[in-house]
Amino acid sequence: MQRIRAGAKRIGLCRFQIIILTICLFLTLLFHLTKHCTVWIDWVTTWIIIPIQTVLRNICALFSFSVSELAILAAATALLAFLVQSLLYVIQQKGYRLRALSTRCITLLCAVFIGTSSFDWLWGSFYYRSSLQEQTGIYAEEVSVPDLYDVTVYFIEHANETAGQISRSDTGDLSMTPQSIAALSVSVYDELESAFPIFRKNRTAPKVVVFSEGLSYIDCTGFYFPYLGESNLNGHSPRIAMPATAAHELAHQMGIASEQEANFSAVLACTQSSYPAFAYSGWQLGMSYLLNALYRADPGQWETAFSMLSETVRQDLSRINTYWAAYDTPLADTADRINNSRQENYGQDLATQSYGAVVDLLVAYFKPQI
């Protein structure tokens, strides 16, 4: 024991650091050993994690600004200050520089382990709980091309109809402010609560990020911050698509981790909304996924379906595509790869079923209504 203590002291490892590393290692091992036990993960997320996040996001809701954005900036500033201070400290420790460097590296390692082990439980665990499909009874199945075409046309017809019902600015974009979109989004799931209990969760309005254009550079329309349970929106992106984005981030608030299932939830909620801006945004988002799938399946039928788009819808799609094309940079590509890698690390197959889970779920739900 004395040798262990002497060795720890030699490399600058203190008792507090040992405790932190031990706890983080235990939590990480517990997560990876039990993550495939759905009953256990359902219990942990329902009775521990969701209540904690609910309390945290309700506290965040007291502030008009994004607490998540402030926390990220504070963390980045603290990291920079720590690195600079550590460099100066190591330089000053003549004769003990290696030990000083080791101590600072271990401190940084503790911070990283705290962040990663917390992320596993606060967010990663939701990838392993009972899925949206299991909780709603709507399952993604193999989709035939005729069914895909029919549902695509169905979405196009509704997109054409609702496109003219929204209030627009001089540029043709949605006239609503990002803040008003965020405020209205909280009630967008109300219509689904009676049919699907999974949506009966506490929700708080997403926050519009101050440095929104920075999110565009990493190809991000919004994000959910699991450490605080707060949803955030990119207020610089085209507003016509923002209502569905807000609904998507709210789906994450309610514990729907899968990006594909969150997108399906957003489309489902928005298309049933009484707010024209949300209804159109939902039909447009679903239509985009369906058209992309139809193009891969049958370019000829895609051309027929695409010709049905109204001029207004075409202009909206062009506005959205033009905006994101301006931010199509290596940084955005890198961010996409990191995001995809993170999802795959939690066992997410980004191309499930025949055309992807979003399309398959849309066809499964809307085909019987046609």
Using only CA atoms, what is the Rg? Answer: 24 Å
Shape, per Cα inertia axes: globular
Helix/strand order = HHHHHHHHEHEEHHHHHHH
Number of DSSP-assigned strands:
3
Residues in helices, as a percent range: 55-70%
What is the percentage of strand-forming residues?
under 5%
- Spatial sequence of strands, sheet with the most strands: 1-3-2
Mean pLDDT: 91
- What is the straight-line distance between the termini? 73 Å
- Main beta sheet, described? 3 strands, mixed
Q: Uncertain runs with pLDDT below 50, 5 residues or more?
A: 350-354
Structural class category: mainly alpha
Secondary structure tally, helices: 16
Plain-language structure description:
The chain is mainly α and 370 residues long. Strand 2 and strand 3 (230-233) form a beta hairpin. Helix 7 (145-163) packs antiparallel against helix 12. The chain contains 16 helices and 3 strands. It has helices at residues 2-10, 15-34, 38-60, 67-92, 97-122, 132-136, 145-163, 178-185, 212-216, 242-253, 259-271, 276-297, 299-306, 311-325, 330-345, 357-366, and strands at 207-208, 222-225, 230-233. The longest helix has 26 residues, at 67-92.
Short description:
By secondary structure, the protein is mostly helical.
What brief labels describe this structure?
370 residues; mainly alpha; three-stranded mixed β-sheet; 16 helices; 64% helix; 3% strand
Task: Furnish the topology, listing elements before pairings.
Elements: H1 2-10, H2 15-34, H3 38-60, H4 67-92, H5 97-122, H6 132-136, H7 145-163, H8 178-185, E1 207-208, H9 212-216, E2 222-225, E3 230-233, H10 242-253, H11 259-271, H12 276-297, H13 299-306, H14 311-325, H15 330-345, H16 357-366
Parallel strand pairs: 1-3
Antiparallel strand pairs: 2-3
